[in-house]
């Protein structure tokens, strides 16, 4: 059976500052329950694509000038980011962005701000987050600014989970982390996907690792999708091997 489509990006073009054309017609589809990788080198347009989906471009003087973004068939182009969170779509930004002066646990609780289903459910989800990230439980009273890069990545992901998302847009979880930690983060993504049914759209430069965990991948080059396919096929593709695998 074909999985239901959650997110559909259709031929979007993004321009920064009215003149710089960065996305030149990007299309992609994210099915429910999938882990979909958006791959490509530095500056290819991965972050821009995620921000176009979650409507975070405006503060950067960027805009979608063509094409459409649909979530569950609804145009989300004009929704504000908080409305999207209520619809189940949340972005984990590149570079983590914790509230440095709050504790780990306080950071996680800020992720529940759009919810109105009561303290007991939020408390249960905090335990759910700690079950995936036991390290965060150990450090729950520490100020987030003093935790390691890997722990801050976990805080950012845990905070996103606290909104009970249907879809997480995850921007470069591997950035700046040691290989072993990267693997650990991807293992956690996989188990959240399998056990909680959370769908992931994952932007990554680490092609190797992303294709090991994703079901399907899109490769972005200078603002265009140049190749896409099931992850297993991309891993075996000679061009992907030559240009992307072994790169990171
Ligand atoms: P990275 O991994 O380096 O973040 P990326 O694939 O995510 O790369 P983007 O961050 O989407 O790439 O950037 C795509 C292009 O858009 C780059 O050439 C970048 O310089 C440009 N760009 C990004 N943000 C802006 C902005 N606010 N104003 C102008 N140009 C921008």
UniProtKB/TrEMBL annotation:
InterPro entries: AAA+_ATPase, ABC_transporter-like_ATP-bd, BCAA_Transport_ATP-bd_LivF, P-loop_NTPase. GO terms for biological process: L-amino acid transport. Residues 7-247 form the ABC transporter domain. Keywords: Amino-acid transport, ATP-binding, Nucleotide-binding, Transport. The keyword Nucleotide-binding applies. It comes from the Bacteria. The keyword ATP-binding applies. GO terms for molecular function: ATP binding; ATP hydrolysis activity; branched-chain amino acid transmembrane transporter activity. Pfam families: ABC_tran (PF00005). Belongs to the ABC transporter superfamily. This is ABC transporter ATP-binding protein.
